[in-house]
Amino acid sequence: MTDAFHIDVPHTDGTLAVIALSGEFDIATASAVRARALELIANGHPDLVADLAGVTFCDSSGLGALVGIWRCAKDVDGSLTLAAIPDRLGRLLSVTGMDTFLPVYPSADAALAARQGNRTTA
Amino acid sequence: MAAVRRYDILDTPPDGAYDRVAALAARLFEVPVATVTIVDEDRIWFKATHGLEGVTEIGRDPGLCASAVLTDDTTVIPDTLLDPVACSNPLVAGPMGVRFYAAAPIITADGYRLGTVNVLDTRPREISEADSATLADLAAVVRDQLELRLSALRVVRAEQERRKVEQDKRQAEEEARQRAERDKAAIAAFASTLQRTLVPPALPAVPGLELACHYKTASPQEVGGDFYDVFPVGGGRWAFFLGDVCGKGAEAASVTSLTRYTLRAAALVDAEPTAALKALNAALLLDAAVGTRFCTAVFGLLDPARDGGFTVTLATGGHPPAYHLSPIEGGGVRVEAVRAKGGMLVGAFAEAAFASRTLHLAPGQGLLLYTDGLTEARTADGRMLADTGLIDFLTQRPAPVSAGCLIDDTVALLDTLPDTERDDVALLALSVPTPDAAPAGITTTAHSAAAPTADTSVGQENQRP
Predict the structure, then answer these.
(1) Burial A25-35 (b: 16+ CB within 10 A, else e)
(2) Closest CB to A67 among B320, B345, B423
(3) pTM for the structure as a whole
C-alpha cells in the first residue's frame, strides 16, 4: 500500500535528525525518502538516523536509497545510522556487505544513545 | 403555455383517441358538433373535431373556448345570444350560428389548463349537472391520454438520449483504445529494441558446457535492470556474469549497459573475477551520477579441467549466492551455496572489497545464478520463496544436472507462483554434460534461436568434439 507510506522527522538536535519511515520502502517511495533526507542534509542535519520500525517492506530500491543517502551524508562529513530495520533489509545489508559501513541499532533510542555516548567520549 | 409546449401536442396529426372522445361527446349530448381543443398563445387549435370539417384552428376570441379554458369548472352557456360576452363570438355571430355551448377544461395533474372538450349546438338547450360532470370526465380522459402520450414521449426521448450518450461514449472509448494501442505498440517496440542492446542476443557455444538462460522484465515497457553475459577471454577460458542494477526503468537500463561493457572490457585486461568487479566498482563511482548507480553481481571465470569439467572462480559483489548442484551417489542432488566472504555492493563504496572462491564443476554437475526476482517471488501463501524454498526445489530435482532442464524447471516453478510480475528475473545455468549423456558428434543444440525479448528462455548445449 504505497499510499500508506509516511516520512516523518520526529526529532532534530544540532547536526542530527531522525527520519522515520513507515509503509513500503520500495521503487515507488525510495526517491521521496532520498529527496527528504538530502533536504535534511542540506539544512544542516548531515547526521541522520533512519528509523525503519514502521517499514513493512523494503527491497533493493530501498537499499539503493539508503546507499545514496549514506554517500551524500559522508560527502559533508555526516553519517547514516539505521534503527529497527526489517529482517529482510538486514539480510540485504549482510549479503551486500553494507553492514560494514552502516551501523545498525535495534531502535532509534538505542541509536541516539549510542551517538550520545560517542559524543561524550569524543 | 409552457405546459402546452411540454405535452408537445400542438399541430400533431389527428389521433384516433381524441377523435373518439369528440365523437363520444357529440353522441352523449346529441349535439351536431363536439371538439377537443388546445389553447395556444394566439389561437385555439382543434386536436379533434366531430361535425366540424375543415376547421383546424380559430382565434382566441372571448366568450367560448378562450373563456372556458380560464376556469377550473365546466362552462355551460344554454343560449349564447343571452350571454353578454359569447354573443359577439364569431362562432355565434358568424355563419355557424352557435346557440348552445358547454366546455370542460383539460387540467393536468399539476393544475395547468391546456384546452377544453367542447360540445356545441345551433339550438339553445339546458344540460343537467350529471351531463356537465360527464363532460368533465371526458376532459379527464383527454388529460389521461395526453399524460400517457407524454410519458411515452419521455421514455422514447430518454432512450434516444441514452443511446446517443452510449454511442458517443463507445466511440470515445474506441478512439482512446486505438490511440493507446498505437502508443503501446510504439513503446513496446522501442523497449524491445532497447532491450536487445542490453541483453546478449544468444549465449555463445562453449565447448564442453551446456548453457541456458532465462530473462524476463517486470513488463514489456519496463527495460530491465537484470543482466548476464558469457564470453571468451582467451586461452580457452570463458567468463560469465549475472547481476541486478538497483532500481528500474531507463536509469537502471543505462547502468545495466555501462556494467555489461565495463565487465567485458575489464575481463579482457584481467580476467581475475575480483579484479573485474573492482574495475566495475571504480567505473560506477567515476560516473557523474555517483551514489545513485550501483549493482550486485556475480562474476565467474571458467578454466577447462582435465576431467572434462571446469575450474570455476566465482567472485561476488553483494549478490545472493550461486548454487552448485552435484549429484550424490545413490541418487539426489547436493546443493551448495557458493559464498565468497566479504563481497560488497558494486558502485556504492570506494572502499568496497570483493572476494572469490574456486570450485570444481565436474561432469554431471551444474551451477545456477539468479537475480532476486526468483528468491523474492511470493508463493501462494504470500511468503517469499527465499533461499530455503529455492534450495528445497533444487535438492528435489533429478541428477545428472542439465542447464537446459534446470532453467526449464525453474521457469515452470516461477510460473506456478501467483505474483511474479513485480520484479525482473534473470537466470543463468551452466552444466557439464556427462560423457554418456550425449552421443558423440553433436556439437550444438539451440533450445531456441529467438532473441530474448520480454519473456524468453534461450539455451544452448554444446559437446566438445
Answers:
(1) bbbebbeebbe
(2) B345
(3) 0.59
